[in-house]
Sequence to fold (452 residues):
Amino acid sequence: GRLSVRDALRAQHTSGERVKVQGWIRSVRSQKEVLFLHINDGSSLESLQIVADASFDCRELAFGSSVEVQGQLVKSPAKRQNVELKAENITVIGNCDAKAFPIKYKERHPLEYLRQYPHLRCRTNVLGSILRVRSEATAAIHSFFKDRGFVHIHTPVITSNDCEGAGELFQVEASSKIKAPEGNFFDVPTFLTVSGQLHLEVMSGAFAQVFTFGPTFRAENSQSRRHLAEFYMVEAEISFIENLQDLTQIMEDLFKSTAMMVLSNCPEDVELCHKFLAPGKKDRLEHMLKNNFLIISYTEAVEILKKASQNFTFTPEWGADLQTEHEKYLVEHCGNIPVFIINYPLALKPFYMRDNEDGPQHTVAAVDLLVPGVGELFGGSLREERYHFLEQQLARSGLTEAYQWYLELRRFGSVPHGGFGMGFERYLQCILGVDNIKDVIPFPRFTHSCLL
Ligand code: 4AD
Ligand code: MG
Fold:
């Protein structure tokens, strides 16, 4: 059978075991009497060294070619690896025209360059590491929730509501070739989801702890390094939760436990990212993991910003949204420890957040987590579970009619509850030190760009 490179590298019994390994050539080096190849199949960062007799016809053995190698796994004399494969037979499966191949042997291409080749960039070490970490982090997030008894819910991608009320919707229609029996395919306007929250809230009325982890879409007209039109969001909703501190604790645990699991399952990949992408910031992750995250109120945050207002293009003011430059300053002010900002003005937030009833300032029980290098990573809140408060909020937002079903949840066994959403790509950016969000998703979609 076929042995993956990862399993070959971990093989214990190296005394002459015959195996078959398949992969892509990462390097070719021929000496007088021996030929060295390194092949990689994406199962690990490290490639497997193949040692062959120089008499092999190696004209087709170019960087990028796919090959199958049969031979014996033996203990390697080299210091850098335990095992190597003594080739008895090497077959080129598909050769690679190295001159035309946009990825060059031994060259460290900048990420901006690689972005032009979404169909090929996954063959580089750096994208390989990022995408393996992405896969490990996905599994870690699922096991985090499973270990705590959360039920996983598939929330819909097509929906008729705009959860965040920001109007950043992609509309969904059947292709014009399809003739629905009468009128439109769905009888109401439909969109790609901007958040699974409202559907999770429905489910939290039956399962006290639920989560979803799926694609989310926002027609954000932004070329920023932290916005995508299609991104993945991890969302949780918890019933019977009564204060923001309990919610922030789960957010902090999710952040830390996922990072720890990634660090223990693919340390080499994390190390490669830190070394090449965030030099000098190597300790940033460790710093975040060993300190307790901080909590400050929106009002305190504005006070801090006002004292430093000479640093900003946008003057900080109570009642205004925090700008990117403000978020950056606050995180630095907090010693690069992630910081929760809680209790935002009601006027800044969507209809579903719980009213704090705190007099003229009038805030809601909202929470954002700001992290180094990225800014806002999580958004969450306690939800308004009281019928009459919610009724007022819906009226204020002109949503009374559309959200009757949501209001109804408050009539049939309503409970205090709250939840949050974490941008998965921003999370990867934060733990790996990747500057641009387009490099942590296999196929980025953003304004004017939907390659492949
Ligand atoms: O703060 P947001 O808009 O919160 C919600 O959608 C809530 N309904 C979630 C909930 O409570 N269940 O989005 C949550 C997070 C942001 O903090 C950010 O990390 C990420 O989603 N995010 C984006 N990531 C990449 N590209 C975009 N265009 C993003 N918009 C939001
Ligand atoms: Mg937000």
